[in-house]
Design goal:
Blueprint lengths: L1 E2 L6 E10 L5 E12 L4 E10 L10 H6 L10 E10 L4 E10 L5 E12 L2 E11 L19 E8 L2
Antiparallel strand pairs: 1-2, 2-3, 3-4, 4-5, 5-6, 6-7, 7-8, 8-9
Length: 159
């Protein structure tokens, strides 16, 4: 569901409930707000509840063992803030921070996108992860603590 009321603020709510492999129902809920300013700046904030995630970092190994497949979030609660700015009609800069509210780790992301054509773009991305480092992969102290910092260059083609 997406609502644009008041007209200067956008709201979005997504929810799902599933029974994963007959192990009980799990819910996922995402709630976000966003605003686009006239000068080409977009800002957004989102809260995410991941029902299959762990509520304590010491339980991070349990969802991995109990699941029949991989999922991308280990924790139960997340918050994200971000924004993008249209520098020129062809250049966009985008930044965001994802907070794991269970273990207090974060990912900082910064991207510069250049539109080469209607079907392609050049992207330069910087990703910086922050969180407690773990000595043992079987006992994670934080979700993002073991991630390396990354710098990437991409050329994307859409068809």
């Amino acid at each position: 569901m997406q609502v644009d009321w008041p007209p200067w603020l956008g709201f979005r709510l997504e929810a799902q409930s599933r029974d994963f492999a007959n192990r009980g129902w799990r819910n996922e809920i995402a709630l976000s707000v966003d605003h686009r300013f006239d000068m080409g700046l977009d800002v957004r904030a989102e809260w995410f509840y991941h029902g299959r995630g762990a509520s304590e970092p010491q339980d991070y190994h349990l969802p991995l063992v109990q699941s029949n497949g991989l999922f991308s979030q280990l924790g139960r609660y997340y918050m994200a803030i971000g924004g993008s700015y249209l520098v020129t009609p062809l250049w966009t800069v985008d930044g965001s921070i994802i907070f794991n509210l269970v273990d207090h780790s974060e990912i900082y992301s910064l991207q510069a996108l250049y539109s080469v054509s209607n079907e392609s773009e050049f992207v330069c991305s910087l990703l910086i992860a922050s969180g407690d480092k773990s000595d043992n992969i079987a006992r994670l102290k934080s979700e993002y603590g073991l991630l390396p910092n990354q710098l990437s260059l991409e050329y994307r083609i859409y068809f």
